[in-house]
Amino acid sequence: MNYLFSALDSLPPELTGVIAATVVLLIVSAVGVTIGVPAYAKFIRILRERHPAIYEELGRPAVTMASPRRSIALQKFLFSRRPVETGDAELAASAAFLKTFTVLLLLATFGSCTWMLLAAFGMLNQLPA
Fold first, then answer.
1. What is the largest CA-CA distance in the chain?
2. Which of 52, 76, 101, 108 falls 20 to 30 Å from 83 in CA-CA distance?
3. For the whole model, what pTM was predicted?
């Protein structure tokens, strides 16, 4: 372990920042998949089983959608008041969790990418303390 840290000390600061930001981005991605996939699967299952009309209206969403149109439709539904208006407490709770989780995941991803870009261009040292 000491070898790793001494090896990192010998790298230029820009590269060290990029490596650190990449590690953080990988962790954010792993957390996103580990928590997000089961949470979205549960949300979609509730829609499919208890609200088939909405499920059909959204284009039969799935966790592994390749269709941007269906993905956007699901996100619009998720961030609207409609999950609460269904009267299904479990669907509303799942939607509330996913809204918070999605926003936090996007912020963490954007922050990691920004950190990586700033480090790559050597701009981290120019930021005010």
1. 60
2. 108
3. 0.78
